[in-house]
Amino acid sequence: MALKTLKTETRGRVAIITLNRPEALNALNSELLGELRETLAQYGADEKIGAIVLTGSEKAFAAGADIKEMQPKDYIGAYMEDFFEGWSAVAETRKPVIAAVSGYALGGGCELAMMCDFIIAADTAKFGQPEITLGVIPGMGGTQRMTRAIGKAKAMDLCLTGRMMDAEEAERSGLVARVVPAAELLATATKAAEKIAGFSLPVAMMVKEAVNRADEVTLSEGLRFERRMFHSLFASEDQKEGMAAFIDKRKAQFKHR
Ligand code: HXC
Q: Which of 23, 46, 70, 201 is the most exposed place for a label (fewest CB within 10 A)?
């Protein structure tokens, strides 16, 4: 498929997806959504890919849902198409996905970054949920994922005032995992993805699934889920290899990667 709104490349076992609508600061329209869903599905099915980096431009990861496309919508139309539902495919990607965020990550852009497994931010990054300034509320998970990530006080502050939060505040608040100089953003995110992609892929996918469970179930259910998954890995060749390699003082050669 010839892509119009994304650029893609692979480096070894890492796929890098770059949002590419520079004329609109990577505003998220339906064409971009379709291409992103298709691309994620392809990398998800490609056994040579072990981790994915999602990034944007230096100025904007994404400045939100495309306001020009959204403006004429009416209620029944939005309801019938289940507007924004398609974005859940990003959160449902089973392989690890790192968001590498430089510049603006606003509205749907911030929500897209939060659908990834963790965010590495450039020191230039700015996060916000400015939907209230447009007469709407976040519609791609902002009120839910942000509240879980940074707590009620900060999430209310950002969603009610529409103000932006810089990278330093975002790291302090727990929204982003690391902040790096802008020039090092993609290299840092790619290196982290390479590290993940070097491990056993099913194990990395189970880590993702288990951590995500923490947002959905009670502590006792989550602990039970984690322990059962942990037990199941003793049936895997990669557990035998990983532990044997430690004892033999050599690098593990995982089969499922
Ligand atoms: C469509 C957008 C856009 C967006 C920017 N552009 N953001 N187009 N949708 N979300 C376009 C501009 O119209 C402009 O096009 C070009 O990109 C450059 O933007 P400028 O505003 O000229 O750049 P700048 O002055 O540097 O300001 C950057 C900015 C500003 C602060 C990020 O663009 C901005 O405030 N954008 C909107 C941010 C926002 O409100 N996002 C949330 C959207 S709602 P032209 O053609 O004029 O050059 C959302 C979820 C909705 O995401 C949920 C509802 C259910």
A: 23
- Largest Cα span, the chain: 64
User: Are 254 and 242 contacting, i.e. CB atoms less than 8 angstroms apart?
Assistant: yes
Question: Are residues 102 and 221 part of one domain?
Answer: no
Residues 124 and 217 in one domain: no
Domain match, 87 and 125 both: yes
- Each residue of 4-51: pLDDT tens digit? 999 999 999 999 999 999 999 999 999 999 999 999 999 999 999 999
pTM: 0.97
Q: What sign for the dihedral angle of Cα 57, 59, 65, 71?
A: negative
CATH number of the domain at 242, please. Answer: 1.10.12.10
DSSP state of 217: S
- Residues 142 and 65 both lie in one domain: yes
Task: Please state the domain count of the chain.
Answer: 2
Domain range for 178 is 6-197
Strand segments (E) across the chain:
6-11, 14-19, 51-55, 60-62, 97-101, 104-106, 118-122, 126-128, 164-166, 178-180
Q: Which of 125, 131, 139, 142 is catalytic?
A: 131
Cα(184)–Cα(180) distance, integer angstroms: 6
Residue 121's identity, in one-letter code, is: A
CB of residue 67 inside a 6 A radius of ligand 1: yes
Strands 51-55 vs 14-19: parallel, antiparallel or unpaired: parallel
Q: Is the CB of 141 under 6 A from ligand 1?
A: no
Residue 1 lies in a domain: no
Give a yes or no: residue 174 inside a domain: yes
Query: Do 98 and 205 fall into the same domain?
Result: no
Q: What ipTM was estimated for this complex?
A: 0.97
